Amino acid sequence: MSELIIMSVPQSNFARSVRMLAAEKGVPCTLQPDAPHSDPVKAISPFGKVPVMKHGDVEIFETSAIARYIEAAFDGPKFFPEDPATAAKVEEWVSLHATQLDKTMIRQYAFAYIFPGTDDGSPNQDVIKGCIDAVKMQLEYIDGAVGDGYLVGDEFTYADMALYPTLAYMRNFPESGAIVKACANLTAYMDKIDARESAHSTKPPKKA
Ligand SMILES: N[C@@H](CCC(=O)N[C@@H](CS)C(=O)NCC(=O)O)C(=O)O
Predict the structure, then answer these.
(1) Mean pLDDT for all residues in the chain
(2) Residue 60's domain spans which residues?
(3) Number of structural domains the chain divides into
(4) Is residue 104 in a domain?
(5) How far is CA 113 from the centre of its chain?
(6) What confidence tens digit (pLDDT) does each residue in 13-61 have?
(7) Candidate of 12, 14, 158 to mutate for ligand 1, largest count of ligand atoms within 8 Å of Cβ
(8) Minimal CA–CA distance to 202: which of 22, 66, 54?
(9) Distance CA 11, CA 1 (A)
């Protein structure tokens, strides 16, 4: 069987989702540490975003497509439910994450710390002030959703893997960390996923 290769920097929240899925299914997966817009990545996706995937002759970009492939191509436990309503709920979270949650929490808020663009390299307070209300609204919405155990009822699904890497970053920064702490359901939910082997084995290096 060909090797499953995910090309990405280890810090990528999107790449971590599909790496977690492979780990949960017991599928060996090699992280090839290629940066966005590097030649090996652009050879698979002209858009240059990571992750991209290679499995034998199969080359795929876009995280959600990679996740669907890993789910369908390999044996092991299933993380995309088949029941239409439950499947659509998983898709709702995956899509919400890709189109809104990631943009607010990572591209705006976390990047204000990681890539602040300020003269002295200090966190970009204007950006933080501009998005923190949206970060709070989104985290509180998720807090309200995980009361039953997981995002979609009481089953651990790919929806949880799609959001977990982004939520894990939210615990690292002061304002978002305080919001997560104040959300009891969300904190319990994160603690539970933190304990999974798939979370350990895909943990990004300390410096984001
Ligand atoms: N729609 C893409 C988004 C992936 C994405 O934004 N990846 C980030 C790293 S976490 C990236 O490659 N950023 C570089 C860029 O946007 O140029 C997907 O779902 O895979």
Answers:
(1) 97
(2) 4-73
(3) 2
(4) yes
(5) 18
(6) 999 999 999 999 999 999 999 999 999 999 999 999 999 999 999 999 9
(7) 14
(8) 22
(9) 28
